[in-house]
């Protein structure tokens, strides 16, 4: 897929050279792609039998061929399954790193999830460091990635719990650790699935998909609509935050904003919110879908029956004295929320029984909503 504005995407078909019988090959041969500056090639790694990571190469991202087998990451014997490789450069070690989803041998799938690391000076000679993160309490951490931001290394993954879970991260001073067992934070809710970081001028942007149908653990449809990208940035307290990328915010400013909501299928609502000190929460109705709940320590998206479909820990204590910015995107049964240039939250809600137009109202009169404006937008099909 290609895009110039991160809103409109076009499919670019890819091809692969004929595969010989001795080649290791899978249909998902373009996975974990990175640019090898030393050769000018794009490389891909993907999991294969016994947990080896097999490589493909391309000059243009469109036409691929099998890489020589010396570029593969060899298997090991400490896991039942290993997959989802991601390669990155470690400047202080002058080596490449490769993090991989790992299901540890002899452990239940529900608690055997770990992330393993291999390093190499030349993409050929790999040293397996084993599991660098093994909490003993999680399922397989989907799509692990590691990146440098705010003077720390961050390990990102979506925790599997009978469904692809929310993107969480751990922070450390070194790729080798130590890594805490508990995550340092979350970057979104459970409906931003298999989220992945892409770098633009060394700035990380988070891309994930929203399930095609409202998703509960054990009943999640695999795949969905691509969510709006989130810019990931370091906060003064060392945590990570997410916000709408500047290029998208600029694009939306060109829309026809107005003070009243129209009869639209897809709506952007933009406002500022102040929460009085004595107030524990405020609820903003998004008729007919449900409600957005703003609590001092949490954001929640509820359906029309009051069931929570996505939530995120948050700190909205500053909203007592200083209004926080809120931008809300509604498209059919999808909701995406951006708050205070620090939090984002996506959800797919059960389809409303009626085809009523969107309506935005506050249930609690003590909360202050100001600078409210609305725009119709046309998200890509």
UniProtKB/TrEMBL annotation:
EC supergroup of this enzyme: hydrolase
SUPFAM superfamilies: Arabinanase/levansucrase/invertase (SSF75005), Concanavalin A-like lectins/glucanases (SSF49899)
Domain of life: Bacteria
A single MF term (Gene Ontology): beta-fructofuranosidase activity
GO biological process, one term: carbohydrate metabolic process
UniProt domain Glycosyl hydrolase family 32 C-terminal: residue ranges: 311-374
Pfam families xrefs: Glyco_hydro_32C, Glyco_hydro_32N
Entry's EC annotation: 3.2.1.26
Keyword Hydrolase: yes
Domain Glycosyl hydrolase family 32 N-terminal: 2-234
Alphabetical UniProt keywords: Glycosidase, Hydrolase
Family: Belongs to the glycosyl hydrolase 32 family.
Protein's name in the database: beta-fructofuranosidase
Lineage: Bacteria, Pseudomonadati, Verrucomicrobiota, Verrucomicrobiia, Verrucomicrobiales
């Amino acid at each position: 897929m290609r895009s110039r504005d991160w809103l409109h995407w076009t499919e670019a078909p890819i091809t692969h050279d004929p595969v010989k019988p001795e080649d290791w090959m899978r249909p998902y041969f373009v996975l974990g792609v990175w640019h090898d500056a030393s050769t000018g090639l794009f490389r891909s790694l993907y999991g294969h039998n016994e947990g080896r990571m097999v490589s493909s190469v391309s000059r243009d991202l469109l036409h691929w061929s099998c890489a020589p087998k010396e570029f593969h990451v060899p298997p090991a014997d400490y896991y039942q399954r290993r997959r989802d490789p991601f390669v990155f450069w470690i400047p202080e070690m002058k080596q490449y790193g490769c993090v991989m989803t790992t299901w540890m041998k002899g452990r239940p799938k529900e608690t055997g999830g770990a992330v393993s690391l291999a390093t190499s000076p030349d993409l050929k000679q790999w040293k397996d460091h084993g599991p660098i993160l093994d909490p003993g309490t999680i399922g397989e951490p989907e799509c692990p990635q590691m990146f440098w931001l705010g003077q720390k290394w961050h390990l990102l993954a979506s925790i599997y719990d009978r469904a692809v879970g929310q993107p969480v991260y751990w922070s450390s001073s070194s790729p080798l650790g130590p890594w805490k067992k508990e995550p340092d934070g979350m970057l979104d809710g459970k409906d931003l699935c298999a989220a992945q970081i892409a770098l633009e001028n060394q700035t990380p942007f988070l891309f994930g998909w929203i399930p095609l149908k409202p998703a509960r653990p054990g009943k999640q449809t695999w795949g969905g609509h691509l969510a709006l990208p989130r810019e990931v940035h370091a906060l003064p307290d060392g945590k990570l935050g997410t916000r709408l990328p500047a290029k998208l915010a600029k694009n939306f400013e060109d829309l026809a904003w107005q003070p009243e909501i129209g009869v639209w299928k897809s709506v952007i609502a933009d406002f500022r919110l102040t929460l009085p000190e004595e107030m524990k929460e405020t609820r903003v109705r998004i008729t007919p879908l449900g409600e957005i709940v703003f609590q001092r320590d949490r954001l929640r998206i509820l359906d029309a029956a009051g069931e929570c479909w996505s939530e995120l820990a948050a700190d909205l204590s500053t909203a007592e004295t200083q209004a926080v910015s809120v931008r809300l995107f509604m498209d059919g049964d999808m909701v995406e929320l951006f708050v205070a240039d620090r939090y984002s939250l996506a959800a797919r809600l059960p389809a409303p029984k009626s085809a009523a137009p969107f309506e935005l109202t506050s249930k609690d009169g003590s909360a202050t909503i100001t600078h409210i404006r609305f725009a119709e937008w046309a998200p890509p099909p």
